[in-house]
Amino acid sequence: MEQVVGIGGVFFKSRDPKALAAWYREHLGVPVEPEQTYGVFTSAAAGEQAVWSAFPADTSYFGSGPAPFMVNYRVRNLDAMLAQLRAAGAPVDDRVEDYGYGRFGWATDPEGNRFELWEPRSPGQG
């Protein structure tokens, strides 16, 4: 059985993403560069990254459900995980996006929360 191996990121809606990102940078030390709405945490020991990001309140990136957030889960085998979810009857997006840093897919849980799955690209791959 495929399973998630970590959190790749946490994304949430915001009325003012830049101002909220600046607040998190100033008060919690989230590594957000000025004028950006996201930050990347890097684990030196594991060499893994996790993204924190504020999105506009009207974003459609989280799907049509009511949730003001979306979690990105890290997986080893995106295709196997998506097939497993489809076999279980979960709504799974048909598209998969491929970037230099990994592949992404999306599905929705039984309560309508959309989530993102990320298969990071291995060093030297791509």
Automatic annotation (TrEMBL):
Residue intervals of the VOC domain: 6-120
MF (Gene Ontology): dioxygenase activity
Keywords noted in UniProt: Dioxygenase, Oxidoreductase
Keyword Oxidoreductase: yes
Coiled coil: none
Pfam family, one: Glyoxalase_6
Keyword tRNA-binding: no
InterPro entries: Anthracycline_SecMetBiosynth (IPR052164), Glyas_Bleomycin-R_OHBP_Dase (IPR029068), Glyoxalase_6 (IPR041581), VOC_core (IPR037523)
Entry-linked PANTHER family: GLYOXALASE, GLYOXALASE-RELATED
Name the UniProt record assigns to this protein: Glyoxalase/Bleomycin resistance protein/Dioxygenase family protein
Gene source species: Fimbriiglobus ruber
